[in-house]
UniProtKB/TrEMBL annotation:
GO terms for biological process: termination of RNA polymerase I transcription. PANTHER family: DNA-DIRECTED RNA POLYMERASE, DNA-DIRECTED RNA POLYMERASE I SUBUNIT RPA12. It is found in: Nucleus, Nucleolus. It comes from the Eukaryota. Keywords: DNA-directed RNA polymerase, Metal-binding, Nucleus, Transcription, Zinc, Zinc-finger. A zinc finger (C4-type) spans 14-35. This is DNA-directed RNA polymerase I subunit RPA12. GO terms for molecular function: DNA-directed RNA polymerase activity; nucleic acid binding; zinc ion binding. Zn(2+) 2 binds at C79, C82, C107, C110. Residues 75-115 form the TFIIS-type domain. Zn(2+) 1 binds at C14, C17, C32, C35. GO terms for cellular component: RNA polymerase I complex.
């Protein structure tokens, strides 16, 4: 039966050839399958692992959406809901090619949305 205590199972590499060492056998020895190096589990030193990371600012979904809104096209159009005179707009061809496009408006103040079929 394998003993998986932290003293026995340590990820390590063969000091002779650099390949990954297998788990210890039934008598507590570790053998490299590539070059044949053998040692006791007591001789294996756990490798020191050093990690580094940088802090980065992650925008929430709401902030990303607000940032995207700043780049949309604007037009002087009266909002029927709040009376604001500036709206975002975009156009799309939703109907057949021989018909006009649909223009979408969104108030820059209250967010009310309307559309016009041209």
């Amino acid at each position: 039966k394998w003993d998986f205590s932290s003293e026995v199972v340590k990820v390590n590499f063969c000091p002779e050839c650099g390949s990954l060492l297998d788990l210890p056998n039934h008598i507590g020895n570790v053998e490299c399958k590539l070059c044949g190096y053998v040692c006791s589990t007591k001789e294996i030193r756990a490798p020191e692992i050093l990690t580094k990371s940088k802090t980065r600012v992650v925008q929430s979904g709401r902030l990303k959406k607000e940032a995207a809104l700043d780049h949309r096209a604007k037009v002087q159009q009266l909002c029927e809901k709040c009376g604001n005179e500036e709206m975002y707009y975009s156009c799309a061809q939703l109907r057949s090619a021989d018909e006009g496009q649909t223009t979408f408006f969104e108030c820059t103040n209250c967010g009310d949305r309307t559309s016009i079929n041209n």
